[in-house]
Amino acid sequence: MPHVLVLNASYEPLGVVPLRRALVLVLENKAQCLEESGAFMHSATRTIPAPSVVRLKRFVRVPYRGPVPLTRRALFARDGGRCMYCGGVATSVDHVIPKSRGGQHAWENVVASCRRCNHVKADRHLLELGWRLRHKPAPPTGLAWRIIGTGHRDPRWLPYLQPFGADDAMARIDGISA
Ligand SMILES: [Zn+2]
C-alpha cells in the first residue's frame, strides 16, 4: 500500500499515513491534495487521483515530540550509509561503547558500521583499538527525520521536507538497501 506525506496547514511535515487514510482526509474535505502520485483510485461512483502529499486544511497543534526515534533506517540516513570507522559501505549498527560494557542504545552511542569493523571491534572501546569516529554521533534534528525514519519515501516529498532538515538526507539514503 503506498503511503502519503501529511503536512500541517502550516506546511510542517506531520507524518506518513497509508493511502486509504489520506484519501479519506481529502474526501472529507479535511485535507487538500498538493501532489498526485499518478495513480487513480476508483470507487463505485467516481475516479480520484491518488495523492502523494496532502495538507490539512486546519492547523493541528502538535505536542512536543521528543527526540527523533532511533531506527536503523534513520541511523543509516544520518551516517550517509557509510561506516563511521572506515568510511566503507555500512551494513550493520554498532554501539560505540559496547552494550556489554554499559553503552546505551541512543543516538550518541550508535553508528552505522561495515561488517568488518563491527567484527574487529567486537566489544572493545575505541581507545583500546586506537580508532576514531569520522563524526561525533548526535541525534538528528528536524521534522523531516521523523518522515525518513519511517522508511516510506517518495521523490515527490522531497521539496516539502527540504525546509525541515531533510536536505540531502533522502538522497543519501538512495544507496542504502531497505
Ligand atoms: Zn568499517
UniProtKB/TrEMBL annotation:
Signal peptide: none annotated. Pfam families: HNH_5 (PF14279). One of its GO terms (molecular function) is endonuclease activity. The keyword Nuclease applies. Keywords: Endonuclease, Hydrolase, Nuclease. The keyword Hydrolase applies. Residues 70-119 form the HNH nuclease domain. InterPro entries: HNH_5, HNH_nuc, NA-targeting_endonuclease. PANTHER family: OS07G0170200 PROTEIN, SLL1193 PROTEIN. This is HNH endonuclease.
